């Protein structure tokens, strides 16, 4: 088992990574404030993984309730969040009852937000079951829901007490979802880790074949990188914004097309290409760099062309981004391959990037 520590002064926690962690309740039990948990999952994940988790917890004398939500980005809403509150109140869950998120990023983000606000805060644990959730969403404490006018617009920074990334759960992940997770994996290479980007170029076939040692290495490396960035800037006052590489464009794609039409990771892949084209417009990265990024994304089964929404629609959607400051849209750009920064773009540069990066 690999363990990455997220060293936040007020809320340090472990991220454990290995196969078959789901039933290792000795990792969970010492963290509980009372022998009672509520597992939040969805209609796809629960039939696969709820019973082994619940059986193991109950065998350790921990009382379990479960809440099964509908599956999909389109359900990452206030209405679904309310279903969690309804169930918590109906079961008379208390302040010391721990919520466990069992699923991908949608379940993790919603369960974390429910934990942040139910009775003004109850403990929660992340058990991520998608690659995307294991490398990104379960770590760092960004929780929330979508609004029709923008992605993740309602939420809170609220840290889990533990993350259990069971690599065996990735065996059942649909290929399209594996690819979507790979977008965030590649993101870590582009943010500030050229050596990891080069490792990905050499090992992408092994990752797509789900070789355990390759997946274990990638999940650990991504979690180490994210833990370092979040520990230095938990609430995104500065460097944490780098984790948004590809997201200014990507979130516009997700909300512009309608949530769930493109998966988050797919939108982020196309968004990273748009960020790369903008960076090339600024003479910061080369044609060769662009080809390397595109080749890696294609090998991961990801889209490299963004959908045509129209220049004005992109600009309008991006004007809702959470990084907007005094009306100015901020982008994560590439200084060179494997080094990124937060900056602004002229309207002409944005349009030039969209012209190259959108499918005709
Ligand atoms: N909080 C953060 O820091 C952060 C980071 C990145 C993404 N996100 C959010 O995460 C969400 C995307 O997460 P996601 O890609 O995990 O999507 P998801 O949660 O929708 O899961 C993808 C699909 O895979 C299914 N699934 C999950 N685990 C499975 C398994 N082991 N076997 C078979 N099917 C399984 C799910 O039911 C779903 O249909 C987006 O809402 C995004 O905004 C948040
Ligand atoms: O943890 C972060 O910080 C991230 O930005 C990770 C992103 O991959 C993730 O999609 C996040 O939810 C986007 O953040 P947002 O603040 O733009 O909603
Ligand atoms: Zn993301």
Structure, explained:
This protein is 45% helix and 18% strand. With 360 residues, it is an alpha/beta fold. A 4-stranded parallel sheet has the order 4-3-5-6, with helices on both faces. It starts with a strand and ends with a helix. Nicotinamide-adenine-dinucleotide (NAD) is lined by residues 42, 44-45, 48, 71, 73, 76, 103-107, 109, 129-130, 132-133, 136-137, 140, 142, 152, 169, 172-173, 177, 180, 264-265. It is found in: Cytoplasm. Its cofactor is Co(2+); Zn(2+); NAD(+). NAD(+) binds at residues 71-76, 105-109, 129-130, 142, 151.
Strand and helix map with partners:
Elements: E1 2-6, E2 13-18, E3 36-42, H1 46-59, E4 63-69, H2 78-90, E5 98-103, H3 105-117, E6 124-128, H4 131-137, E7 142-147, E8 150-157, E9 162-166, H5 175-192, H6 194-208, H7 212-232, H8 247-257, H9 264-281, H10 287-299, H11 311-318, E10 331-336, E11 339-343, H12 347-357
Parallel strand pairs: 2-9, 3-4, 3-5, 5-6
Antiparallel strand pairs: 1-2, 7-8, 10-11
Helix pairs in contact: 2-3, 4-5, 4-7, 5-6, 5-9, 6-7, 8-9, 8-11, 9-10, 9-12
Bound molecules: nicotinamide-adenine-dinucleotide, ligand LNCXM5UN and zinc ion.
């Amino acid at each position: 088992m690999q363990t990455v520590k997220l060293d936040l002064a007020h809320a340090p926690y472990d991220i454990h990574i290995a196969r078959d962690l789901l039933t290792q309740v000795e990792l969970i039990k010492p963290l509980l404030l009372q022998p009672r948990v509520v597992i939040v999952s969805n209609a796809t994940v629960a039939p696969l993984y709820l019973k082994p988790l619940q059986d193991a917890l109950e065998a350790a004398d921990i009382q379990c309730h479960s809440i099964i939500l509908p599956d999909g980005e389109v359900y990452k809403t206030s209405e679904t969040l309310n279903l969690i509150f309804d169930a918590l109140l109906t079961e008379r869950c208390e302040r010391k009852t721990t919520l466990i998120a069992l699923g991908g990023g949608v379940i993790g983000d919603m369960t974390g937000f429910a934990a942040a606000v139910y009775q003004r805060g109850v403990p929660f644990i992340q058990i991520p079951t998608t690659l995307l959730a294991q490398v990104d969403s379960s770590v760092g404490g960004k929780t929330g829901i979508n609004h029709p006018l923008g992605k993740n617009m309602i939420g809170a920074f609220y840290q889990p007490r533990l993350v259990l990334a069971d690599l065996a759960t990735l065996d059942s992940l649909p290929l399209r979802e594996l690819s979507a997770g790979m977008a965030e994996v590649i993101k870590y290479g582009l943010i500030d880790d050229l050596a990891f980007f080069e490792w990905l170029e050499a090992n992408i076939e092994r990752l797509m074949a789900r070789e355990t040692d390759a997946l274990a290495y990638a999940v650990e490396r991504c979690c180490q990188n994210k833990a370092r960035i979040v520990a230095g800037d938990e609430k995104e006052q500065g460097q944490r914004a780098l984790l948004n590489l590809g997201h200014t464009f990507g979130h516009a794609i997700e909300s512009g097309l309608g949530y769930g039409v493109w998966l988050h990771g797919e939108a982020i892949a196309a968004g990273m290409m748009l960020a790369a084209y903008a960076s090339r417009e600024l003479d910061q990265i080369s044609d060769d760099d662009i080809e390397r990024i595109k080749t890696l994304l294609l090998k991961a089964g990801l889209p490299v062309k963004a959908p045509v929404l129209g220049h004005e629609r992109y600009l309008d959607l991006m004007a809702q981004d959470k990084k907007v400051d005094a009306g100015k849209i901020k982008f994560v750009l590439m200084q060179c391959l494997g080094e990124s920064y937060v900056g602004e773009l002229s309207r002409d540069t944005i349009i030039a990037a969209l012209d190259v990066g959108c499918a005709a």
